[in-house]
Amino acid sequence: MFTIGMPLFLATSRSGFPPEGLSPAGGDGNDEIGRRVTTPVSFKALIDALKALPGIGPRAAQRIAFDLVERKREEAETLAQALTRALETLRHCDSCNTLSETPICALCASPRRDKSLLCVVESPSDQITLEQSGAFSGLYFVLMGRLSPLDGIGPGEIHLERLVERATDGSVKEVILATNFTNEGEVTAHVITELLESQGVKVSRLARGIPIGSELEYVDAATVAQAVRERR
Ligand SMILES: [Zn+2]
């Protein structure tokens, strides 16, 4: 632990520092020369971990790290526990591929759903949007992404092999593509259509009530419901 009154972040003898003749931290009167600011290893590791997250640059990572360890320790503790628990308990549903704590999620296990309809969405939040529209009573397949070759997301990353397996298991009569109406969503829908139609599966796409370029989670429920009904 740090001694009270002793300056934090003083350089120690790591990587050859301090130069010969200077003591590490205070003591012989030369510390004014030998002093330099370094970041504690654990703090740097936290910053690096935050920096690796999407949308967080180096400065934001530093600010968040400082906030977490200095001002919001309780929230930081909650975050750490929630993260650990989520990583330990969450897996993919064997049937629809969405996040689940059980091998088969509650929706897939429900006897009230129409097993002949399979709706393909990009993400769990799109699935929630469709559920809130109340227009769909079938089952889902959640891709957990969309085709995006530039970001290194290919057919394997969005589990297309499993989708084909699921769509041709004998219970599905129609696959409804509800990928987003963005360029990547459209390309994904196109690839899936070709893939499934070559296997003799009937495929439809949400109708165009959804504005081009928009993501389902930001479209109001009534519009989504209409798009499901008017799929073609
Ligand atoms: Zn499921």
Describe this structure in words.
By secondary structure, this protein is of the alpha/beta class. It folds into 2 domains: 14-89, Helicase, Ruva Protein, domain 3 (Orthogonal Bundle), CATH 1.10.8; 99-229, Dna Topoisomerase Vi A Subunit, Chain: A, domain 2 (3-Layer(aba) Sandwich). 40% of the residues lie in helices and 10% in strands. The protein contains 9 helices and 6 strands; from the N terminus they run ααααββαβαβαβαβα. Helix 2 (41-51) crosses helix 3 and helix 3 (58-71) packs across helix 4 (73-89). The chain is elongated. It binds zinc ion. Zinc ion is lined by residues 93, 95-96, 98, 104-105, 107-108.
Task: Give a quick rundown of the structure.
The protein has 232 residues and is an alpha/beta fold. Helix content is 40%, strand content 10%. It has nine helices and six strands, in the order ααααββαβαβαβαβα.
List keywords for this structure.
single chain, 232 residues, alpha/beta, Helicase, Ruva Protein, domain 3, Dna Topoisomerase Vi A Subunit, Chain: A, domain 2, 2 domains, 4-stranded parallel β-sheet, two-stranded antiparallel sheet, 10% strand, disordered N terminus, binds zinc ion
